[in-house]
Amino acid sequence: MPLSTSSPPWRERMAAAVRRLAEHPTTRRWGPWLGWTAGAFVVGYLFAALVLFPPRPRREVVTTPDLRGLPEAVARRRALAAGLEYVRERLLPHPSVRAGVVLAHTPQPGEEVPPGTPVRSLVSAGPQPETIPDVRRLPQVRAWSLLDRLGFRVRFVGAHDPLTPFGRVLDVRPTPGTRLPMGRTVELVVSLGPRVVAVPNVVGLPLDSARARLGDLGLATVVERVVDPARAGLVVGQRPPPGASVSEGRGVTLVVGTAASASIPADSPALPPTAPTDTTPATPTHPPTIPPSHR
Known about the structure:
Blueprint: H1 9-23, H2 25-52, E1 62-63, H3 72-81, E2 85-93, E3 102-106, E4 112-113, E5 118-126, E6 129-131, H4 140-149, E7 153-159, E8 169-173, E9 179-181, E10 185-191, E11 196-198, H5 207-216, E12 220-227, E13 235-239, E14 245-247, E15 251-258, E16 279-281
Parallel strand pairs: 2-5, 7-10, 12-15
Antiparallel strand pairs: 1-4, 3-5, 6-9, 7-16, 8-10, 11-14, 13-15
């Protein structure tokens, strides 16, 4: 059976509809105007897009490399290799970073900038020598604050002292006026106040032996004499009693027997020898507890 060469029915119907639309009086009257309107719209759009509001050319940018922690010579080479300039803004003393190392820079690492943008850097000048101030007799918190502000590390050593209030600085090592690089350690000897000691039992001892024993503990003696021929020259009583806790430098009253009641001499208080200053290491590298309002 031969194949049909005729077009499908739907194509014939579409072609007939197009012919009827083209032959319609309205289409013949408005067709040219519609064409001119569409053409004018296209021309106006192209004029606005290409002439009035042309697209901006894509700006070339480079990424700022991270130069922190690098010696200046290396930092300069990396900046130039990235298409940027390198400028040293200024030198800053630093207690722990050696001289010539980049501390910070702008633009920030990773920031995109146009080629040729200068990278301005802050460079370490290294530890600079500072003069140790005289902070003796100051409270330890105040002394620590002054030294910390100058870039020094501070180590505390405690020492008992009966004449200096607790927490006051007794001594500074090295001595005030010494010049040290920033970051070095200054040792402060801080008063722990007077030691608290237990009063020993000296009843029955000769007066000189009792005085020596109390003096070794940093205690003074006050002597009262009573008639007691059987125990003449010996301590027959004491105040405070044995075992009592007293501060270093306090006086202990010794009641001493004497052979006769006539003209009992009045002994002056015997002061102990200068008590040796014993040092006990305190927290070595950490500052004291600072109240919240401090720094």
